[in-house]
Amino acid sequence: MDLAALLDRIADDVAPEIGRGSVADYIPALARVEPRRFGMAVAEVDGRLHGVGDWRTPFSIQSMSKVFTLALALSHGDGVWTRVGREPSGNPFNSLVQLENEDGIPRNPFINAGALVVTDELAHHGDAAETLLRFLREESGNADIGIDAEVAASEAGHADRNRALAYFMASYRNMRRPVPDVLDQYVRQCSIAMNCADVARSAVFLARHGVRNDGTRLLGLSAAKRVNAVMLTCGTYDAAGEFAYRVGLPGKSGVGGGIVAIVPGRCAVCVWSPGLDARGNSVAGVAALDRFTTLTGWSIF
Amino acid sequence: MDLAALLDRIADDVAPEIGRGSVADYIPALARVEPRRFGMAVAEVDGRLHGVGDWRTPFSIQSMSKVFTLALALSHGDGVWTRVGREPSGNPFNSLVQLENEDGIPRNPFINAGALVVTDELAHHGDAAETLLRFLREESGNADIGIDAEVAASEAGHADRNRALAYFMASYRNMRRPVPDVLDQYVRQCSIAMNCADVARSAVFLARHGVRNDGTRLLGLSAAKRVNAVMLTCGTYDAAGEFAYRVGLPGKSGVGGGIVAIVPGRCAVCVWSPGLDARGNSVAGVAALDRFTTLTGWSIF
Amino acid sequence: MDLAALLDRIADDVAPEIGRGSVADYIPALARVEPRRFGMAVAEVDGRLHGVGDWRTPFSIQSMSKVFTLALALSHGDGVWTRVGREPSGNPFNSLVQLENEDGIPRNPFINAGALVVTDELAHHGDAAETLLRFLREESGNADIGIDAEVAASEAGHADRNRALAYFMASYRNMRRPVPDVLDQYVRQCSIAMNCADVARSAVFLARHGVRNDGTRLLGLSAAKRVNAVMLTCGTYDAAGEFAYRVGLPGKSGVGGGIVAIVPGRCAVCVWSPGLDARGNSVAGVAALDRFTTLTGWSIF
Amino acid sequence: MDLAALLDRIADDVAPEIGRGSVADYIPALARVEPRRFGMAVAEVDGRLHGVGDWRTPFSIQSMSKVFTLALALSHGDGVWTRVGREPSGNPFNSLVQLENEDGIPRNPFINAGALVVTDELAHHGDAAETLLRFLREESGNADIGIDAEVAASEAGHADRNRALAYFMASYRNMRRPVPDVLDQYVRQCSIAMNCADVARSAVFLARHGVRNDGTRLLGLSAAKRVNAVMLTCGTYDAAGEFAYRVGLPGKSGVGGGIVAIVPGRCAVCVWSPGLDARGNSVAGVAALDRFTTLTGWSIF
């Protein structure tokens, strides 16, 4: 399959969707992003890389970081699963309701509460944001990937909800390090800026069932498959069922407008377009992935 | 792969799990089932059939019927999706809470409320239980498949919760036919008795992306894949995330102790063992499917 | 205090509120009511009766009936309290959420689910609607009080939500008689038409701590006080706190626009005006009771 | 009525209840309290004071402080009501669920979230704990009333849940001052130690409809009555309906085992016994108030 030509076609097909939806506006640094951007990249398991549109333009990865921190935490063992569940939440990503009904154990690692637990876990092995940065730079081969300081400062100033989530879990003894430390590392992770090519290259180990670009193994076969399973059931906020239905691939979205998706055994895909739907997923991004699986026939179902 | 030998090995491996858990006891006809039964069958897309243990013993399919009625309703078009969602519920299968918060639209077709809507929709085209029976007999080639009259009578006598769900949806105008009619058809669907071989043969059209055993098409490629997607995210009550994580296949369970799972492009699997875990899924059944995907490497992730 | 003059003054004061809000429109028979009606009556414990405006015009008592059926059920003993609680619900009057979380035991006897239980309890001693009618006729001295057949028929045709509530409780074994029977009696109770004078005279036994107009005792001192307590905490749907705050009297409202309130030791008050606020309480009715307690100083606080 | 003799009789009557229930144990300083303590005091509107048992022994007032801070906040005007509701919560005192559903506006000023808002409001006029201390010393005439430093330190070390509540409200812009400041003032209020006599004398202005012991007015007639109304509907956590039913007086409890209740126009009562029921109210305290209203006939109903 000529993926380069395919990406061109997809970019044409979804053009009417680009600019639709609303750019995240809870912090000024995100609100300023030009809504009509669109980029898409595919990193194949054999190392080939393809892209279209703004695929070399960095954007804020936000919650896409949660896939990588989960994988990094699992590379140290299964311990994190005693502190966070694996079920879809059925509620918005920053809801406290279930957390209360379920004694401070977040439903899954991709809602904010769960990602805070994963960060707390990863922090046993050094600053979680630094660990993540190092991994992303190594996988992508791009040493320039960094934290957007303006986004990080802005996030830190709008973190009361996450702070509430963290203290709430602390009240159930499900937070080991001091909340301000965990929150700081969490905010810096979310504020990393990357382009589609680098995200796709950093995520392709999940299509390779755990094997990194340098041939070493980050995760065992089962663990890697299971990260994909959690992405499928929990990766797109409370629209995971809809995403599985339309796209049929494990995927994780971020409010920066990015989505990363995995075709097991084949490739990782990253798409970026800042306009979000009501549930926080990129409108043009979902449409592009929908076209991608329709045209390739590569859904997992 | 020698699936016959594989099934033998799985039966050995899961022997310690057989008899664990609790047999469904809300009606006497189910409570009487011998807990130490175990059967498993695989129907391949090319027609080959394999089995082990009690794979020729009929059991009550219960909620496994919901996969078939959904597929049959979708064979008439997409209309049902205006009346039922596609998101995991995050709540027990017969909960009313979300139904109230979401104006009488059930979260998905595999919780009881959603299946009542699907039955109501299918009933436009004739008695839904009869339609289902006809389909199951044709696909399995077993004309003896029937409704267990004792189970049906018993279910009808313990249907107050489902009756409440149906009237509740009626109060939101999401029930078209009279509640007693819909409930009667729903109860009879759940009371069908089948063996593992027949279930696997009846479900293999989902592995064949919509094509029935006689080569005709029940569903288009996309629609069939999408039924699989809904099974993955919503098929095992509030344990869908755990099932995706452990087994990695679309699956649908019933409180009779059966689970049907799909390996797209390859086969349908049906396993049966009556002991249920706290969430209503067969203990030995989940274990057997876990072994199956581990040994074959056939998870979708 | 010259209550007749006082009522005239209140009618003047609240004139701007009359016609505000929305008339209940879920059934045609209620939707047709002229919104600009206003009546108010006071029945003193010594038998004196005062009124203003449309105080002799019958209206649909709806949920005000719940106070009387509770008192009648309690006249047979405390048994009903094993099947219904005494706490404010904090949720709309016909919500199923709490019922599910609390195993089919309604929070209090003034939400619909609780009133269905009270009806079921009262039905042990004969048809509950007939028992209620007999009591209301005796207390008011008005043998013409009856059930509005059009309202009753209309309610019966819009009872799916209440039917769902009743079957839901039945699934928890908290419904003793057949649901259709209980529902029929419940609907007829709510469909009784009375005027303000008759309601006030029928309720004054609660101001007399249980003693009826003929000097016999319906309830003991404690039981009567406790009905007042439940009215205060639960009598005005999810606005009970606001009503206690503004009016400071035990009161029970109905979607027909009536409110009955008790001044312990002094009198019962009934006010009627069909325009309802967002929580289902009469706008002009609450305003009139607010004026009444302000002018008389007769709040219980 | 000979209140001194009455209190002796009540102490005898409730003796079997003393020591029942569980002493609050979330902080060591409270867990150490001797469970078999019992004291009760009545402060009449004319200044007479009566007591029995341990009525001169200081204890931790905890949530009873919320009544006084509400009254002090209202003495500056009605502004606080734009930030907190007046409805019973129907949920435990430190729940976050409703807060989320209702956009960060707490249901009432007596759940923790609401009291944090009241503290934030009162803090406009100086340190809220100091303001409260000054008021309590003036009303009781006891200059020795102070903050228990050990309790305060202990509370501050177990405040993650309250910290979560405060940051959660901050995320809805319903917290004006920095969370750490508000929390510090809140913790010190709750850690005040007082005896029954001093609490009763400090609360009797609510029985005098707003007039303090020195004849000056803290609150207008309406405002004072309304504080009583909020106490009745919301003062005893999620047992307010039960307390109204059994006791029939406005009351506010604390997990230190104290309860303060108001008989409008007559007196304030404070009872203390550390054993708590499942909902956090003193077992012997509720029993004593129940006896008190039964023997005096002074319920408000």
UniProtKB/TrEMBL annotation, chains A, B, C, D:
GO annotation terms (biological process): glutamate biosynthetic process; L-glutamine catabolic process
EC numbers on record: 3.5.1.2
An annotated Gene Ontology molecular function: glutaminase activity
Catalytic EC class: hydrolase
UniProt keyword annotation of Acetylation present: yes
Reactions catalysed, as given in the entry: L-glutamine + H2O = L-glutamate + NH4(+)
UniProt KW keywords: Acetylation, Hydrolase
Source organism superkingdom: Bacteria
Keyword Acetylation in annotation: yes
Residues at which substrate binds: S63, N112, E155, N162, Y186, Y237, V255
Family label: Belongs to the glutaminase family.
HAMAP family: Glutaminase
Known partners and oligomeric status: Homotetramer.
Name listed for the protein in its UniProt record: Glutaminase
Gene name in the database record: glsA
